Amino acid sequence: MSGASSKAVVLLSGGLDSYTAAAIARESGFELYALTVNYGQRHAHEILAARKVAEALGASAHRELAVNLSSLGGSALLGDGDVPKSGPDPSVIPSTYVPARNTVMLALALAWAEVLGAYDIFIGVNALDYSGYPDCRPEFIEAFERTATLATKAGVEGGRFRIQAPLISMTKAQIIRRGVSLGLDYGLTHSCYDPLAAGAPCGRCDSCVLRARGFEEAGLRDPLVAHVV
User: Fold this and answer.
1) How far apart are CA 22 and CA 28, in angstroms?
2) What domains, with CATH codes, occur in the chain?
3) Phi and psi torsions of 64, nearest 5°
4) Using one digit for the tens of pLDDT, what is the confidence trace for 131-176?
């Protein structure tokens, strides 16, 4: 731990990765304070999933904050254009990139952490099986960690914040295996960028493709696969 506190703020999107990262925090002995940000995304299914995940993890508190990034636009996930269905290409930053999303979310998590007296913030970013977002890279996490100490009263007074990204160097298959070993029910999660009307995953967006590939490589069955059409 980075300070005297056993509390950790965990960013929960309702997806597979954030669920696993939070479970790793719990296994490490942290008391979980879950934060979900409603940033104006195309649908509310992942928010509903985050609530289920927070309950399953036994979080001491779960806050939902509304920060309407859709008023700024700039992303297919905010309604600007269609969600691409051609498969992920990490060499190209796709239209589903939301400008500054992880910076905004980590800033909100940092604010709550300082109020709670917590020094650890967990985020489920990954830099291997991902869509090429710049704010999922180790360089970004390291830079924000430095900023957290410089920008806060707690940091100036000697506290050291740590941005923990336990999945950052793992493949999607490794993440899934790790979660299964922790007893996680991935049927509670939602990954799809562009779900069907009833919430079923489209099976074709980058997130769906990466999820399906991860379960296949892990040799496991996705509990949501029966709903894919």
Assistant:
1) 10
2) 7-227 (3.40.50.620)
3) -115, 125
4) 789 999 999 999 999 999 999 999 999 999 999 999 999 999 999 9
